[in-house]
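Mods, move this if it's the wrong board.
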Amino acid sequence: MSYRLLAVVLCLPLLSGCSDYEWGWYVLDPSTEQGKTNLGFLLAGFKDTIYVSLLSMVFAMLLGLLVAFPALSDKPWLRAINRVYVEVIRSIPVLVLLLWVYYGMPTLLDVSLNHFWAGVIALTIAESAFMAEVFRGGIQA
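Not the wrong board. C-alpha cells:
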C-alpha cells in the first residue's frame, strides 16, 4: 500500500467530521405548511418549463433547418453567413442570451415581451445553431 493512499485512508475519518452542513430539505417538506407552499410554487413553474421547452424545441428545429440550408450552398458568401451565425450563437451562453432577449430586445425593438415568450425566443435562437449543425451533418452524411 502506498504512503499516499494510507494518508488518505487515515485522514478521511478526521476530515469527514469537519463537514457539519445540514441540507435545507425542510423547505420542500410536504408535511409542513411552508413546504407545501414552496412545493406548489415549484410544481406550478414546472408546467411552464415544459411548455417553454416543447415550443422552443419545435421552433429551433424549424429555424435550424432553415439555417442549415445555406451551409450546403455552392456560394461561399452563403456558407460564410451560416458559419458566422452558427459560431456566434453557439459561443453565447444561454443565460446571457436569455437576459439580452428579456431586457435588451424590448428596449432595442420597442416591443413588449413577457417572460414566457422571452424564454421561448432565447432558447429557440440558442438551440437553432446546434440544430443547424445536426441537420447539415445529417444531410451531408
